[in-house]
Design goal:
Number of strands: 4
Radius of gyration: 20 Å
Number of helices: 13
Strand order of the largest sheet: 1-4
Order of helices and strands: HHHHHEHEEHHHHEHHH
Distance between the termini: 14 Å
Helix content: over 70%
Length: about 325
């Protein structure tokens, strides 16, 4: 390979990395400006706060997904566990009250994440296959508890976390900000965060350097379970309903935000701030296009194309090293 060709490939690789890492910033800015100019409602405080409140559950799961995907693993069960949290909380409400019920739901979800982590890290089941199976189990549990019915809470106190506010923002938004800050700090400023990147980038090298790769993977799945529990509890509180389902919308929304935000699906690369941009980019597409009367079919086509583009850029940037 000639020096000129190596130089050309190097410049191309650098551009692909830049595109993967920062294209989402430009995309959000452009979309924000376009929607602000084409819709009289988009830039209002009410609409912007509504967008933010709506993305809270998905964003919290997306933060945890960022951590897990950087670690080189994936969890298909997060959506079903998300739903299970709401079912458990609404089912227990009459017996133990609002906050204990929500807490138990979150603990169940966290334990579910620990089970996933143990099966993947120590039993060595492929994470895709393992969490596909456990998502089916979680879905079955939700049906067994709810008997396929909506579990509705009429007490307004149950909705406090989901609908209450402090300093002009809903409690749920404050929780989302706290979760994002905690995950971002852990990944970027702690030894554990460096271990997560190392395990995702090269698990064998990480193991040989003395990192307990199994423990790191186990903890990563616990984080996803905890996030699914917190997100599910917030949604259940906001709607005052436990609704059985497989939660695939949550998985799709969170994963889409992470990928569009530039986190590498091959592991070892990613950042929470880019996931935040990914969450709001997809939310603005839905909200803005609804305001402009664009059909939901076209919204889904556009989102699918964007995800394919993001994955293609990631693949090219990795293969061209």
């Amino acid at each position: 390979m000639t020096a000129a060709l190596q130089d050309t490939r190097g410049r191309l690789h650098a551009r692909l990395l830049f595109l993967r890492d920062y294209a989402i910033v430009g995309a959000v800015v452009v979309l924000f400006v376009v929607l602000s100019l084409t819709s009289d409602v988009f830039l209002t405080r009410t609409n912007l706060l509504n967008i933010t409140a709506q993305v809270v559950p998905t964003a919290i799961v997306a933060f945890a997904y960022t951590w897990l995907i950087i670690c080189g693993e994936f969890d298909l069960s997060a959506g079903a566990v998300f739903v299970l949290t709401g079912i458990v909380a609404t089912n227990l409400y009459d017996d133990i009250g609002t906050y204990p019920a929500l807490l138990v739901g979150i603990l169940v979800a966290t334990a579910y994440g620990a089970v996933n982590g143990f099966l993947v890290a120590y039993v060595r089941i492929n994470s895709f296959v393992c969490t596909l199976a456990t998502s089916i189990i979680a879905y079955g549990i939700t049906l067994a508890i709810s008997q396929g019915r909506l579990l509705t809470i009429t007490d307004s106190g149950f909705a406090t976390i989901g609908r209450g506010s402090f300093a002009g923002l809903r409690y749920s938004i404050w929780i989302m900000i706290l979760c994002g800050a905690m995950v971002a700090f852990t990944l970027s400023r702690t030894k554990l965060g460096r271990w997560v990147y190392a395990v995702g980038g090269n698990p064998e090298a990480a193991r040989l350097s003395g990192i307990n790769t199994r423990a790191v993977k186990l903890l990563s799945f616990v984080v996803v379970g905890l996030a699914a529990g917190v997100g599910g509890a917030i949604l259940a509180s906001r709607t005052s309903v436990g609704q059985p389902g497989n939660g695939i919308e949550t998985v799709f929304g969170a994963f889409s935000a992470v990928v569009v935000g530039g986190t590498s699906i091959g592991g070892g690369r990613g950042a929470i701030w880019r996931t935040v941009f990914g969450v709001f980019f997809l939310a603005m597409i839905t909200n803005g296009f609804n305001l402009l009367g664009v059909s939901i079919y076209y919204q889904q086509i556009i989102q699918g194309v964007i995800i394919l583009f993001a994955v293609a850029v990631d693949a090219l940037s990795r293969s061209d090293r």
